[in-house]
Design brief:
The structure holds three protein chains of three kinds. Chain B is an alpha+beta fold. Chain B is built from twelve helices and twelve strands. Chain B has two domains: 188 residues, no CATH class; 171 residues, no CATH class. In chain B, strand 6 and strand 7 form a beta hairpin. Helices cover 54% and strands 16% of the residues of chain C. In chain C, the strands form two sheets. In chain C, strands 1, 3, 4, 5, 6, 7, 8, 9, 11 and 12 form a ten-stranded mixed β-sheet that branches. Chain C starts with a helix and ends with a helix. The chains are: A alpha/beta, B alpha+beta, C alpha+beta.
Chain lengths: 229, 388, 383
């Protein structure tokens, strides 16, 4: 059952009056429950594609449909609300807010909902439990290791129970051991919790964990692989 | 050091928004500083230039001002006979017996009645106070109800223009001349024949006598002669000392007030500069680490940032001085409470004041930049290089 | 409400920067509130004046006197209920620098017409019974340590009163209510001064009590009419106008203090606005992350603006507190010049209001910058 449908999506940037094409008429279908890996050399447009899926950027041409929503036609404000409900984003550099504790960082997306304080607490503790950091709730990001920070970031991404998890080089800044832990977590989220994940990566170890692989080069799709169904 | 300086300059330009705001804050402080002190300067200048080094003023013993002094008719010939007084071409002493009364005239600015000093003088007053020049008309004719008006008074109060008729002391007086006096307080006054003004105001004596000494060095002798004469209950002061004293209290108040306000504002601006410099240091941590790794010493780094802060602040200071300049020469007035009369004076910005403003701004920059500069120098090199 | 927590935590980001900015705003508010208090102090006399008292003085100037024999004519003017008079003494207490107001008054009528002067019945009787007695304000008593029973000697300042010193017995310390009378003055019997005066039976100004405040102008005109074209031409006006003319003597105080206030505000806007802009610039990634999480631009705007507002209000509280400590006669040496000085509630509210204004204005641009941030550009900067 297709969750994501990209049709003829093109994206170009204007830099000093020159049009730089980053994605060229890309069409992709992702089914619910897929763990998709996006690979390709630097400048291939994979991060751009991720940004388009997240709704934090708009395609120059083409349509992006996630679930029943044609997100390319939503207004900025509607997009923000949609994003809050449907997307969980994991960054390469974790991007936790330094003045907030682990608990408060994970709680952040819930502030946009109408849940009560007690309800928010439940969700946060559940999410932190899943990533295995329930004992670090009061710690600030500077008190956590890189791997722990990324796991808190993952907890933040899943706390709203989003339709789609998007990860941009989640292991790019981690040592081998932490990377392994994070990838195991992601795989678990996909296989056990049935989360649809789109992950951009360079890392072949990361790519191994995905169920599907897409290769991009110079803004176009060059290869599609199925690793498991 | 030249490379560092241009590095600083370029860094400032890159962050021009922040730099501009910081300079702006300092500019405001300097502008307030210059403007308020210009008031004090102007007021003092007016009163000080009212005194001539060659003149002396004779008042009742321990009187603090003309208006509370009294000098009787019989005293006049005694003083005029004293040898230290200069004589005119006709051999008669250069002395003026005077009486200052207050008349109420509406101010041009707010139509409110103001206390305008009307000075009854002897005809020789124009020789005694020789820095008076007539810009319109002529001297009043003695023995008539003709009057002369100072230029500042004409500008400040209604109904004093050349040819006007002014009503006071239950009589009508006619303006026949307008004079300037180097911005001295006399320019705020109305002058007329003292012997006609006295009865008009129901007075029967003078208040003071102003005399021109044959030579300024004769003052001490003159003073001794006046004090030593048992017929007189009077004492002499140098005219300059008298006016300096008149301005002292108010000038001090204005200066204290101006300094206080400026200091408080300065704290705010210095803190703003500190913020900016701390942010600059944080932003350029990696650069600093690189410079240190290349061999630039800690003191060089401190100097560099300090110079940057001072330069930025001084820029603000220049801006502030420029902002303040338009008030120079602006006319305003206040009441000299010793004489209970209104004195018109001008805002007076001197080069000294501007220099003071610039020094002040540099000082603010130094204070604001010191701690951040020290911090910049203290960052461990290895850590600095790791910063993004 | 939950966002308030976010705002508070954000402010702790850089304690030093928050501290510096709070103090900057505090200084501005301190100055502003103090200047307003000083201005109010200047105008206190006029503000507190009674609408049923009118003052008659010589039309030429206050320094000329009128005969006390004119009292009957003024009293007989329709609309006049009561009358008193006073004269400026201008004496010197030990040193000319010890300036305070001394008035020679017609004692019984003056105290009757100025209920703002509060004395105990014993003090009042003692004063009225003693020709050389005087009453001093509690503020003045505090400054020079005067007590009931003390002797005050004044040197003559205005030559009309001769050359001999005047001795007074302090018979009472008065308190005041309302602004029409200050607590920094000394009042004594007019007769005592008149005895030694070279010009007998003269007074500086009359104060008449009128029955109907709406008729002030007519009664004033009627009084002046009686003396028009005589050697003692008068000018009668409301007490308020009389008091206001003294303030105007200093010069355009309103303009001066107002201009300084404007400079203060602008300077602080620069400083506060700069801080907030810096703060936003440092947090671009964070802001982008929050936008990615789905925080709408409007909420981001509110968060940043809220932070600015919080710092400013904090600064405002500190500034008002400082002003409250400094602006009182115990600390500020305004003494004889500005008798009533203190920080009123209205001054405090104005000060806090200013801090809110600064917070709003200074935060406007940074908050807009943060709300308008292009997410992708901001994220790309780091990774």
């Amino acid at each position: 059952m297709p969750l994501i449908e990209l049709r003829d999506v093109t994206k170009s940037y204007k830099r000093d009056a020159i049009d730089i094409p980053v994605l060229d008429r890309v069409s992709i279908t992702v089914d619910a429950g897929d763990f998709l890996g996006l690979m390709g050399p630097s400048g291939s447009g994979k991060s751009t594609l991720l940004n388009l899926l997240a709704g934090i950027d708009r395609p120059s041409r083409g349509s992006i449909k996630i679930g029943d929503t044609e997100i390319s036609s939503l207004s900025e404000r509607a997009l923000a609300g949609w994003r809050a409900r449907h997307i969980g984003f994991i960054f390469q550099l974790y991007n936790l807010i330094p003045v907030l504790t682990a608990f408060e960082n994970v709680e952040l997306p819930l502030l946009l909902t109408s849940l009560s304080k007690a309800q928010r607490r439940d969700h946060v503790m559940t999410a932190l439990g899943i990533v295995g950091l329930a004992d670090r709730v009061k710690h600030y990001p500077r008190q956590l290791s890189g791997g722990q920070e990324q796991r808190v970031a993952i907890a933040r991404a899943i706390v709203t129970d989003p339709t789609l998890l998007l990860a941009d080089e989640p292991t790019g800044d981690l040592d081998a051991k932490s990377a392994g832990e994070v990838l195991t977590l992601l795989q678990r989220l996909n296989e056990e919790f049935k989360k649809t994940i789109v992950m951009v990566t360079h890392d072949p170890h990361a790519a191994e964990r995905a169920s599907h692989l897409l290769h991009l080069e110079k803004g176009t799709l060059v290869e599609q692989t199925v690793q498991r169904s | 050091m030249g490379l560092i300086a241009s590095y600083n300059l370029r860094s400032m330009i890159v962050r021009k928004g922040t730099a501009a705001m910081t300079a702006g804050g300092i500019a405001m402080v300097v502008a307030v500083f210059v403007m308020t002190l210009a008031i004090a300067q102007g007021f003092q200048a007016t009163l000080v230039s009212s005194g001539s080094p060659q003149n002396a003023i004779v008042l009742r013993k321990s009187s603090t001002s003309e208006t509370t002094s009294s000098l009787m008719r019989p005293d006049v010939p005694i003083i005029e006979a004293m040898p230290q007084i200069a004589r005119g071409a006709d051999g008669r002493p250069l002395a003026s017996s005077e009486l200052v009364v207050i008349i109420a005239l509406p101010r041009k600015s707010d139509n409110q009645p103001a206390n305008v000093p009307a000075r009854g003088v002897s005809p020789r007053a124009f020789e005694v106070r020789d820095n008076l020049t007539f810009v319109e008309g002529r001297r009043f004719a003695p023995g008539t109800r003709e009057i002369n008006v100072g230029k500042a008074a004409v500008g400040r109060f209604k109904g004093l223009a050349l040819g006007s008729d002014v009503k006071f002391g239950s009589a009508v007086w006619h303006v026949v001349g307008v004079f300037t006096a180097d911005d001295a307080s006399f320019e705020s006054e109305v002058w007329g024949d003292v012997d006609l003004m006295m009865p008009a105001f129901q007075r029967d004596g003078y208040q003071s006598m102003t005399v021109k000494l044959a030579d300024p060095s004769m003052f001490d002798a003159f003073k001794a002669t006046v004090s030593g004469d048992p017929r007189l209950y009077l004492e002499a002061q140098r005219e300059q000392d008298y006016y300096a004293e008149q301005s002292r209290a108010l000038t001090a108040v204005i200066r204290v007030f101006g300094t206080f306000v400026t200091l408080i504002l300065a704290i705010g601006a210095v803190f703003g500069a500190m913020n900016t410099m701390y942010a600059a240091v944080a932003y350029r941590t990696r650069e600093i680490g690189t410079l240190r790794a290349l061999g630039f010493s800690q003191s060089r780094i401190v100097a560099a940032f300090l110079v940057e802060s001072i330069a930025l602040a001084t820029l603000g200071g220049i801006l502030g001085c420029l902002l303040a300049l338009p008030v120079h020469g602006l006319s305003t007035g206040t009441t000299n409470f010793s004489s209970f009369s209104e004195v018109a004076f001008k805002f007076r910005i001197t080069p000294g004041l501007l220099a003071g403003g610039l020094v002040f701004s540099a000082f603010m920059g130094a204070v604001g930049g010191l701690l951040p500069a020290i911090r910049a120098a203290r960052i461990p090199v290895a850590r600095a290089l790791r910063e993004i | 409400m939950k966002f308030v927590g976010l705002i508070l935590k954000s402010a702790r980001r850089s304690k030093r920067r928050t501290f510096l900015t709070v103090i900057s705003v505090a200084m501005a508010v301190f100055l502003f509130a103090s200047l307003r208090a000083v201005l109010d102090g200047f105008n206190a006399g006029a503000e507190g004046s009674s609408s049923t008292r009118i003052v008659t003085q010589r039309s030429t100037s206050l320094i000329f006197t009128m005969p006390t024999s004119h009292a009957e004519q003024i009293r007989n003017t329709p609309g006049v209920q009561d009358l008193t008079w006073a004269n400026w003494f201008g004496g010197i207490y030990k040193d000319p620098r010890n300036f305070f107001a001394q008035f020679a008054i017609e004692p019984e009528s003056y105290l009757r017409m100025y209920p703002e002067i509060i004395l105990t019945p014993e003090e009042k009787k003692a004063f009225l019974d003693d020709r050389t007695g005087c009453i001093v304000g509690d503020g003045l008593a505090g400054t020079y340590g005067f007590k009931v029973g003390d002797k005050i000697t004044l040197k003559v300042g205005i030559p009309i009163y001769g050359q001999q010193d005047f001795d007074f017995n302090v018979r009472g310390i008065y308190h005041t209510k309302g602004g029409a009378v200050d607590n920094q003055s000394m009042w004594f019997h007019w007769k005592y001064a008149d005895e030694r005066s070279v010009a007998k039976g003269q007074t500086g100004w009359y104060v008449a009590q009128i029955s109907n405040p709406d008729h002030a102008a007519e009664v004033s005109a009627a009084i002046d009419q009686k003396f028009a074209n005589s050697p003692y031409e008068t000018k009668t006006e409301t007490e308020k106008a009389f008091q206001s003319s003294f303030v105007a003597m200093f010069g355009n105080i309103n303009l001066l203090l107002g201009s300084i206030a404007v400079a203060v505000v602008i300077s602080t806007l620069f400083v506060a606005g700069n801080t907030m802009a810096m703060s936003v610039r440092e947090r671009t990634t964070e802001i982008a992350v929050m936008r990615t999480l789905g925080f709408p631009s409007g909420t981001i705007f509110m968060l940043i603006a809220g932070e600015g507002l919080l710092m400013s209000i904090l600064g405002g509280l500190v500034g008002v507190g400082l002003a409250w400590l400094v602006v009182n006669p115990g600390v500020l040496p305004t003494g004889g010049f500005i008798p009533e000085i203190g920080l009123s509630t209205s001054n405090m509210i104005t000060g806090l209001g200013l801090s809110v204004l600064i917070g709003v204005l200074a935060g406007l641009i940074p908050a807009t910058m943060a709300a308008r941030l292009k997410i992708v550009d901001a994220l790309r900067r780091v990774a």
